[in-house]
Specification:
Distance between the termini: 19 Å
Order of helices and strands: EEEHEEEHHEHEHHEHEHEHEHEHEHEHE
């Protein structure tokens, strides 16, 4: 691909510093493909300096959609295919994979797209090509395609928590992920969905999804919203320490409290475990999404059953990637998609 000229990528240097720089042209080896990136969503993990600074310099971004421009020998795609690419894939053979915990597989942690989603061209390794690259339906926009990965992460978590018909779900936090949590819980058949959000400006978006919206983690208010009981599942989409603890008081007997947003390693969060012990409340965490989750998320978006386009508040050209990060960091944007074409 040397004939295409300089290839640009957004390099994260640490301490919040980004720059667009030349990057080596990618080339597809056996079983691999190269895509020309069309769009890539920004994830909350892209903004975590404590998480990304140890990797710097690095090309961030893991929600890409692009056109196949080069196909290595044996790769099952054609030039011109518009695809979603998953950045990690498991082996499907180890003990963790067989037990359904494929996102904890060693290969899952080791595989990645090259150099990252915020690059004009991306090389997709053969392992990823074989398991988790998908042609997008003709009617699906690039922006919607970038939501496949975050929706898949949410789907994996709700399956783990047991969200389903007739159950009551509380979502703590109405950022982009919290709103997608609320929408998916509705689709999975939850009886009542309550969203807790202290930021008044974010509450209307949750209400528009049909959720009951409360300003704080108030157990009495939750009981009233749920008809006298507490939640079967509480999903915490914030790393705010107070909210992480207050969420414990919102789960009913044998309920689940699932922590979706990580805190830095070594950061201690005080939790009142006495609030959960006598009611056998389960505490969970969930990480990323496997191939089955990706396929199901794609189907949910393609069918229109899940309606998430409204959470994308800003579309920013790649040349202004620093502005995209600023909008996301300051909270001015709910969800940012960086566009290359």
């Amino acid at each position: 691909m040397g004939s295409i000229g300089p290839v640009k990528a957004a390099i994260y240097h640490g301490a919040g510093r980004l720059s667009i720089e030349d990057h080596p042209d990618p080339s597809a080896g056996p079983g691999e493909i190269v895509i020309r990136t069309r769009a890539c969503g920004l994830c909350g993990t892209d903004l975590m300096q404590w998480y990304q600074d140890t990797k710097a310099p690095v090309v961030l971004g893991h929600e890409p959609v692009g056109d196949v421009v080069e196909v290595g020998e044996g790769a099952p795609f054609e030039v011109g295919d518009r695809v979603f690419v998953h950045h990690h894939v498991p082996c499907l053979e180890c003990e963790l994979c067989v037990s359904g915990r494929d996102t904890l597989c060693d290969q899952f942690r080791a595989t990645r797209i090259d150099p990252g989603g915020l690059a004009e061209f991306i090389r997709v390794p053969a392992e990823n090509v074989n398991l988790d690259v998908h042609v997008l339906p003709e009617g699906m926009s690039d922006a919607t395609g970038t939501l496949i990965e975050p929706l898949a992460c949410i789907l994996r978590g709700q399956r783990l928590a047991g969200v389903g018909p007739g159950l009551d779900v509380v979502i703590v936090g109405a950022g982009s992920m919290g709103l997608m949590e609320a929408e998916l819980a509705r689709v999975l058949g939850a009886r009542t969905v309550v969203v807790i959000e202290p930021n008044e400006a974010r509450r209307p978006a949750a209400a528009a999804l049909g959720a009951t919206v409360l300003p704080a983690c108030d157990a009495d208010a939750v009981r009233e919203a749920l008809g006298g009981g507490l939640a079967h599942q509480v999903i915490v989409c914030t790393h705010h320490h107070g909210a992480m603890n207050d969420a414990l008081y919102l789960a009913g007997p044998a309920g689940v409290v699932q922590y979706f947003a990580p805190t830095p390693p070594g950061e201690m969060v005080p939790l009142d475990l006495g609030a959960v012990f006598w009611h056998e409340v389960q505490l969970q965490s969930t990480y990323s999404a496997g191939p089955a989750d990706i396929r199901d998320a794609l189907d949910l978006l393609a069918s229109g059953r899940v309606r998430c386009d409204g959470i994308i508040t800003h579309h920013v050209p790649f040349d202004h990637v620093d502005e995209a990060f600023r909008l996301a960091r300051t909270g001015e944007a709910l969800k940012v998609v960086i566009e290359f074409v």
